[in-house]
Amino acid sequence: MIKVNKEDMEYQEGMTIEDVLRRKKYTFRMITVIVNGKVVPKDQYATYRIKDGDNVDVLHIMSGG
Amino acid sequence: MKIVKTKPELCNGCGACMTACSKTRYKVEDPEKSAIRIIEKAEKPGSFDIFVCNHCGECLPVCNTEALYQAKNGAIRIDDKKCVGCYICVGFCPNNAMYVHPDINEPIKCIACGACTRVCPTGAIYMEEK
Amino acid sequence: MENVIEMKKAHRLLARMDYELGKVDKGYTNRTLYINLSDNTIKSKPVTEQMKEIFIGGRGFGLWYLWNAITEKTKWNDPENEIIISTGPIGGITQYPGAGKSLVVTLSPTTGSVIDSNVGGYFGPLLKFAGWDALEIQGKAEKDVIIYIDGNNGYVTIEEAPLEAVDSHLAAEQFTAMYADSEEDKRNVAVVSAGRGAENTLIGMLNFSFFDVKRGVPRLKQAGRGGVGTVFRDKKIKALVVKYTGVKGDTNGPADKQKIINAALKIHKEIHDLDKVQNRMREVGTAHLTEIMNDYDLLPVMNFQYGSHPDAVKLSSDIFKEKYFTQGLPDGCWYGCSMACAKAVDNFELKTGPYKGQKVCVDAAEYETIAGIGANCGIFDPEYVVEANFYCDTYGLDSISTGTLMAFIMECYERGIINKEITGGLELKFGNKEAALELIHQMGNGYGFGKIAGQGVRRMKKIFVEEYGADPDFINDIGMEVKGLECSQYVSKESLAQQGGYAMANKGPQHDEAWLIFMDMVNKQIPTFEDKAQALFYFPLFRTWFGLNGLCKLPWNDIEPADNGLTDEPAKVPEHVRNYVDIFNGVTGKNITEEELILQSERVYNFQRIFNLRMGYGTRKYDIPPYRFLGPVTKEEYESRMERYDNQLKELGYEIEGKTVEEKIRMLREYREDQYQKLCDAVYKRRGWTQDGVPTLETVKRLGIDFPDVVELISKYQ
Ligand code: SF4
Ligand code: SF4
Ligand code: SF4
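The joint structure predicted for all components is written out below.
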């Protein structure tokens, strides 16, 4: 189990940040991904592997109207 | 058309081109008002980068007022009467070859007159077909 | 244009004032142009230091003038009601994106209280450069008039103008041609106009023009909310025209231009480098939000019942980009806007209405319009959206209110509250685009069911209850308005903070005060009441500041520096906040800090709250939204998010086993309504208000807005 924006998500072997974003339908582009308190650079979303128990925060900048 | 071409490895950083440019364009000797800029490389003192417009024209569609235009000789120029000094073109220049001075409304950019190349003692800048 | 010469000949001069041309000094001309159309007075009024200190400009000036012009009994159509237009000290600089906005303030026909609207186009800046910080219009003309301000020759006229069109796409073209000396000169003319729909409804808006030199047509930006166009036409104003030739980078008279330049070069570069990987504002404008909102279940579908729809992809920005928007043209609504969000559709052939068959340039389509007249009405057809957008604009109808009120009507129709007999044969079901367009034409032209629709959701609720026997509780739950203003296009059900952002907003539920959904619902950054209250303190104030200064909100957070995510408070975009402080100081020569920026807004924000109080509103009960803002009203809504709602109830300790949907709806409602009240408690406390939502004496003293009449008024509520 991992946490994504404080909600549980099932952990899957080998999942990357990109997988997490896809599962959550996080399509907005102005985001910052923080894993266990550390910012992950955008260009690593496809390769960065999540570990079981990780705490992932996907901060969306608000935009809107 | 002929434009300013550069061989930065020959540049000794004397800055004569900047003085010549500001004098031709704005009648003052002030490198801050020059359309060509010589900047010493931070990581390699004694070596210089030369920034000057290559008249690629990428700024043309960016201008809201049609102040940017291609002159008959092919140079990209600014029509001062139309320009409102918004500096969008400055931020959008892929070569960082436009400059701003608070006393001058329009961006400072090269008009390909060649004055700078005539004073360069080392041949680091010269006029050549685009 | 020959007919323009004829039209001009038909003008009858009613009054003229010659004036000394002013010079803008540090963002101000220090004068306001006052006009009374009842007796044709034209005069110059000083802008005082106190006004600049407390109200800054823009919306602040508008509120102050209106406060002094009316009484608590004044109605929107009384002659003493005013329309005030002002940009603000920063408005008119050409270097920073989004610095040419005008703020319109008046008493609203739909809310009965003060309304403000923020709009692009060249009018506000050119008005200032012509010598006037604000234009204050009072009184009512007998026949259609125009006000013309010549900022190079120094005169103002009021003229009867019988022949020009009322509809905006024509009016803007005619007046631009009339007052420009040549084609080149057209960009120096700015026109404000409404449209026939502003005469026939209460949701009339104003179009502010700017001349697009590359397309060779005037473009239209909208001051949409709260019926400002209705007031305009009630005063029999056909158009306001200002002309000023000679806009330069320093016409706004900045105290320290270098400060502005530094900020400007940074942000232009940022937009150049990053917009394509962030929001693509330069390519598609706000239209990119449609697919985002759909993905996050926030797109209003069928009167805010649902948050997404499989067909929403048909309205996605890429479709607009490929099939409609013309690319690479200057789509900034004032000089220097590198964000350039103002997209347009060229050569659009109209299929309905009085201009059927003509090819027009449409300022379309922005997110609010796509979501409102499209998704919210269950219509997922871009061709229809562009057509409806064109007619809303030229008729002078607010497309946000139009979308929300049509969605309301459609739900009432589908639920049998109204029927074909009542609608005069219109089959106003969700998804019926022919009927929707017909209703827009009826509203615009003031006939049939359009006459009822054009009164807005609040009045329709009353009519449906009183005349058609609708169940008042249900109608009130689903009619998406607060304070009399129709809601803008976001689903707030799952974000408590946004419910507050909408329903506590001074003018009514418009997202320009606060848009907190991502922070609250998605990021879960503000879990406690105190966190939410802090967000509802800071963001509405920060965003108010744009309206005091003539600024656009978009370049603040629709683009962010590459390292914004690494800052302490990414949601605030700290680097951009610093830019704004620098620009303000660069223009005015003052030396404010980020804290003082907020304080400037806090003064005006509280003053506006007290203004509501003065007009008979402005207390807690007016901050309570219909239940659909907070949660599911109907079975279908509950079922569409069953898992979410069931889980929430379980987590809260409700026993839901074997309960019917209706029972669960009731439980959830009890909980959410209580949460909303608690949110009010926390927010009022943070804002320095009483528990009835009135600023305390201490607060107004601290803010320096303790004018005698303010103190007298709020004392009754302490
Ligand atoms: S600074 Fe002048 S030339 Fe450059 S984009 Fe702006 S108006 Fe055009
Ligand atoms: S060619 Fe002329 S304008 Fe261009 S940099 Fe040299 S001196 Fe300046
Ligand atoms: S971002 Fe859009 S609305 Fe804002 S100033 Fe620029 S063009 Fe106008």
